[in-house]
């Protein structure tokens, strides 16, 4: 996933100059400052950045509490002897500038060892340099824009990793867009697509990849258009789509707009499905669009979390704690991202203490991750991308998202 772009970065370079001497707060027996957490000599903080209020907050909160559950379990099980984990969650409101400010705040906190997030790819573009300059690991459970790990020329085959500190547990739009197009062509037998995007990093990139693959599969794109995030009235757009003769609408963006587009589209008599990416895979989409969402489709990363045996305890904990938000989209990937950080801390900690260059050492330790997470295997390639390429198509059936195809896309 996800959205909003502005490129980078002015004041952050000062922050990048920070070379912190320690990333944990030690108890009174140690020479460092700070207080100990219960059951350990060193308290280590995992930062979280996501939209916790407003736009995309349902999925953002799912991300936050996925990390919280991982930290709580690590503390209960004493996964890293002598180390207690805390979570510091900051709200970026899905705004790149706010994400950049949050990144600056997190790297300035000497207890923060690494960060999970953000949700939106456009926000990530404003955060990556901040974390890289401070040698702080950042693992996103949701970003899907390919250029974040493979550079701006990735489509030409010239893949270059821009930042050594950036990783993700979600697979990329390079696969998701093609997977959606293949399903639309082969399974739904659609021939004429109208393609719309929200002009943001995530949405426009995903729409472009769907279009390329739909054409490659023999389909025809009968129209294209763009909307602005925050728009509410799509009357002109839906009339254009209806008159185009399209048998499917593909939308690159998030549920905030797509849930209104599909409703207004059906209201003018265009009874065609709207298909999108993980940005619209949320129960909020169905609640807002109502019965007009029936038959609509979304792709999302991974297999359905409730079909993963390893996720059973996670889901039970999330529900029993009555945490807000939606765990099903990125909660599992957030848990796995936090687990990668926790496991890496275990590799570099000795007798409950962290080395003075803990952030630097953590980069290599995370890169070497190789374990089975609750949402799939956790292993990173030379670009920081996940080895888990699983994707799923969901369709609204009787008012609920139902998985209709799960697999991988090889082009």
TrEMBL record:
Residues 43-399 form the Leucine-binding protein domain. Residues 1-22 form the signal peptide. InterPro entries: Leu-bd (IPR028081), Peripla_BP_I (IPR028082). Keywords: Signal. Gene3D superfamilies: 3.40.50.2300. Pfam families: Peripla_BP_6. Belongs to the leucine-binding protein family. This is Branched-chain amino acid ABC transporter substrate-binding protein.
């Amino acid at each position: 996933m996800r959205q909003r772009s502005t490129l980078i970065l002015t004041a952050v370079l000062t922050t990048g100059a920070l070379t912190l001497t320690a990333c944990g707060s030690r108890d009174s027996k140690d020479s460092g400052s700070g207080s100990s957490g219960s059951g350990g000599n060193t308290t280590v903080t995992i930062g979280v950045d996501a939209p916790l209020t407003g736009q995309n907050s349902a999925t953002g909160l799912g991300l936050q509490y996925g990390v919280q559950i991982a930290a709580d379990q690590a503390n209960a099980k004493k996964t890293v002897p002598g180390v207690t984990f805390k979570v510091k969650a900051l709200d970026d409101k899905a705004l790149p500038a706010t994400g950049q400010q949050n990144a600056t705040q997190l790297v300035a906190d000497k207890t923060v060892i690494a960060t999970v997030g953000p949700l939106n790819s456009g926000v990530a573009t404003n955060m990556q340099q901040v974390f890289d300059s401070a040698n702080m690991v950042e693992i996103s459970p949701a970003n899907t824009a390919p250029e974040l790990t493979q550079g701006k020329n990735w489509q030409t085959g010239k893949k270059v990793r821009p930042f050594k500190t950036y990783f993700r547990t979600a697979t990329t739009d390079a696969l998701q867009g093609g997977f959606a197009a293949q399903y639309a062509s082969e399974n739904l037998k659609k021939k004429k697509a109208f393609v719309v995007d929200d002009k943001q990093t995530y949405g426009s990139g995903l729409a472009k990849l769907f279009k390329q693959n739909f054409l490659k599969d023999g389909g025809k794109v009968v129209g294209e258009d763009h909307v602005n995030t925050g728009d509410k009235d799509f009357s002109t757009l839906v009339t254009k789509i209806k008159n185009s003769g399209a048998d499917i609408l593909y939308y690159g963006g998030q549920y905030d707009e797509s849930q209104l587009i599909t409703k207004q589209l059906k209201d003018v008599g265009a009874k065609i499905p709207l298909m999108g990416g993980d940005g619209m895979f949320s129960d909020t989409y169905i609640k807002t669009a109502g019965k007009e969402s029936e038959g609509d489709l979304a792709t999302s990363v991974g297999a359905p979390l409730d079909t993963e045996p390893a996720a059973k305890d996670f889901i039970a904990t999330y529900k029993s704690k009555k945490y807000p938000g939606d765990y099903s989209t990125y909660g599992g990937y957030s848990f796995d991202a936090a687990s990668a950080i926790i496991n890496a801390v275990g590799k570099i900690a000795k007798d409950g203490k962290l080395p003075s260059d803990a952030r630097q050492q953590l980069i290599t330790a995370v890169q070497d991750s190789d374990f089975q997470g609750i949402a799939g295997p956790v292993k990173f390639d030379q670009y920081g991308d996940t080895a888990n390429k699983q994707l799923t198509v969901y369709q609204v059936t009787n008012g609920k998202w139902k998985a209709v195809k799960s697999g991988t896309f090889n082009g």
